[in-house]
Amino acid sequence: MAAVTGSGGMSRGLLLVLWGWMVLWSVLSGRLDLLLRGVFHSLVGMSGAALLVAGLVLLFHHRSGSGVIPWPWMVSAALCCLVLLIPPNPSFSDLASNRPQGLPEPAELAFVLPPEQRSLTEWVRLLRSQPDPQLVDGNPVNISGFVWRQPEGPPLIARLTVRCCLADATPSGLVVAWPADAYPKANQWLAIKGRMTVGKRNGESTAVVEPSAIKPIPRPKRPLEP
Question: In a 3-state reduction of DSSP, which class is residue 65?
Fold first, then answer.
């Protein structure tokens, strides 16, 4: 295989530097929190640093190179610049609608926590392990999540849990007794305080969040839950 010389070494070096910086910037800026579970961020960051170092080494060894840059490399550089300029903005509601529900087993049982300290995901896990809604009737609720539009019926308040990244995301949602003047929009993030009550859904008794306060909030820095 021919050695990398002149413009080839310079072009590859610049391309590696560009992609390495893009990967590092995704970690440092928090963009990766929208796509990948936090435990894997350091691995991605090390990969970006390795690309950056490799690119700098190539640039150092081919400082005097010049010539035409191959068009596939130019396309790759352009795509990298687009990734840097356009932040990811996934629609969690659409993603949740295309995934089956089914949470992984929790590290510990959610019912050991005081009700007002349970996250939305912990509430869903608890209700699946204790399906009788009467057991939680009247419990205080203090949760946050995004609005998950349903094909039929009112929207849910929901979260996405991931083992690794959005590719294996699993939705979990709670039924909300929305006030008459509430118009929740898909993907809108809300903080809800209230209590659990017992209602009907599809003809069956189910736990329903009865809000006493609903507050729009910014999307959390780390919206994906383990």
Answer: coil
Two structure tokens written together for 132:
């009788």
CA 34, CA 126: separation in Å to the nearest integer?
26
Asked whether 55 and 17 are in contact (CB, 8 A), the reply is: yes
Q: Which H/E stretch holds residue 225? A: strand 224-225
- 122 contacts 106 by C-beta, under 8 angstroms: yes
Q: Which two tokens stand for residue 152?
A: 């039929």
Which residues, in sequence order, are CB contacts of 216 under 8 Å at separation 6+? 188, 189, 190
Q: What domains sit in the chain, N to C, each tagged with a CATH number?
A: 6-89 (no CATH), 94-225 (2.40.50)
Tens-binned pLDDT, residue by residue, of the chain (226 aa): 444 445 566 778 888 999 999 999 889 988 888 888 888 889 999 999 999 999 888 888 876 555 566 778 788 888 888 888 887 888 888 888 877 666 555 545 555 778 999 999 989 888 888 878 999 999 999 999 999 998 888 899 999 988 888 778 889 999 999 999 888 999 999 999 999 999 987 778 899 999 999 999 999 988 888 7
**Residue the block writes with tokens 């400082």:** 63
**CA angle 130-133-139, nearest 5°?**
100
Q: Are 31 and 88 in contact (CB under 8 A)?
A: yes
- The CA distances from residue 77 to 6, 9, 12, 17, in Å, are 19, 15, 10, 10
Please give the distance of CA 62 from its chain centroid, rounded to a whole number: 40
